[in-house]
Amino acid sequence: MCKHSTRTKNLLVVITSLIASGLLFFISFFVILAAPQDGKDARGAVLHITKFVLWFAALAIEIGVYLYSDAPYGLLRVAPMSERLG
Fold first, then answer.
1. Contact between 13 and 68 (Cβ < 8 Å)
2. Computed over its alpha carbons, how large is the radius of gyration of the chain?
3. 84 pLDDT band (50/70/90 cuts)?
4. Closest to 29 in 3D by CA, of 46, 54, 49
5. Distances from the Cα of 11 to the Cα of 23, 36, 38, 43, 71, angstroms
6. How far is 71 from 83, CA to CA, in rounded Å?
7. How far are the Cα atoms of 10, 61, 81, 86 from residue 55, in angstroms, in the given order?
8. 20: Cβ contacts below 8 Å, ≥ 6 apart
């Protein structure tokens, strides 16, 4: 029973992290739409920096959960991180 509970907890952590990461990428899409194309004013520069911060945060969440989770290699880690990052 304890092993099943751990698997369920790990699966929920992975799903939650992917949802959070997806939301950050989704928000960054709207930041890109709001940013002026030339980006030469202060607002454009701030929006471009915000876009990269959101991307970094989303990737950090995914990599952090992958590295620090106790997920089993068979069920939850179907695709290795090297393939996803490549």
1. no
2. 17
3. low
4. 54
5. 18, 40, 43, 40, 7
6. 18
7. 24, 10, 17, 16
8. 58, 61
Q: What is the pLDDT of residues 27-63, one digit of tens each?
A: 999 988 887 776 677 888 888 889 999 999 999 998 8
- Three-class HEC string of 8-75: HHHHHHHHHHHHHHHHHHHHHHHHHHHCCCCCCCHHHHHHHHHHHHHHHHHHHHHHHHHHHCCCCCCC
Tokens (6 digits) for 51: 């876009």
| pTM for the whole structure | 0.69
- Tokens found for residue 79: 């695709």
